[in-house]
Amino acid sequence: MKTMTCRDMGGPCDRKISAETPEEMMDEAMNHMRTDHPNDKKMTSMSEDEREDWKDGIMKKWDALPES
Ligand SMILES: [Zn+2]
Known about the structure:
Layout: E1 2-5, E2 16-19, H1 22-36, H2 41-44, H3 48-64
Antiparallel strand pairs: 1-2
The structure holds zinc ion (ZN).
């Protein structure tokens, strides 16, 4: 289990999100963005390229995080 914040993933708040896998983390992050930041178009309306960059960034941060 690893924990990242909304802000770590490009969002505007410090909500902690925990997941077992990076894929789960991204799903949880997107759910949170859509639920709590529906007007944050930077996150909810990414192009395919932007989404790939976003995923790459999260994968790198994920690898650097300690297991908790
Ligand atoms: Zn947030």
